[in-house]
Amino acid sequence: MITCYFENGDKVGLRHVTVSAIILKDKKVLLCKRGCYNGKPILEFGKWGLIGGFVDRDETLIEAAKRESMEETGWKITNLKLFEVLDNPDRPNDSERQNFGMVFLADAVSQIPSETEEVVELRWFDMDNLPAKEQIAFDFNDVLELYKKYLKEKFPLPVLD
Fold first, then answer.
1. From the candidate CATH numbers 2.60.40.2250, 3.40.50.620, 3.40.50.300, 3.90.79.10, the one assigned to the domain spanning 18-160
2. What DSSP state is assigned to residue 136?
3. pLDDT in tens, 117-136
């Protein structure tokens, strides 16, 4: 939780805002295996996840998604479309921070070499051959299952959690 002080002096805990992207290329999705930050394993270390992270101050959601993609994968992304809003305060393995997540659909355009300790492996997955649910971080398996349903049904976006 983020502690904030308002004009009237009230102190309140607010939730973090995150962005994640379902990055697509040739009908495959790019997932990252989670690594470390400053030498320490991050939450859900070793599990597969969507590309993303925290929104920085003075940054739009789109800017954050593009920045996180470049930092974590080296992929430039375009055609971002809001897919789902994850606002459940009880998201799996997220109790301390209660992240509020925006999930985008995005197309991969081009890649430049990039390395970060936050990602130990990048891999393109066919939507019908994703890692097992227990190998996917947080509630991203649910997000990917919803995306597979969207491919068949093309329901209105964004989806509100």
1. 3.90.79.10
2. B
3. 999 999 999 999 999 999 99
Biggest CA-to-CA distance, the chain: 53
State both tokens at 6: 């308002």
pLDDT at 10: 73
**Cβ neighbours of residue 145 under 8 Å, at least 6 residues apart?**
none
The residue type of 24 is L
Does an H or E element contain 29, and which?
strand 28-34
Distance CA 1, CA 4 (A): 9
**3-state helix vs strand vs coil in the chain, percent to 5:** 20, 45, 40
Report how far residue 117's alpha carbon sits from residue 58's, in angstroms, rounded to the nearest whole number: 25
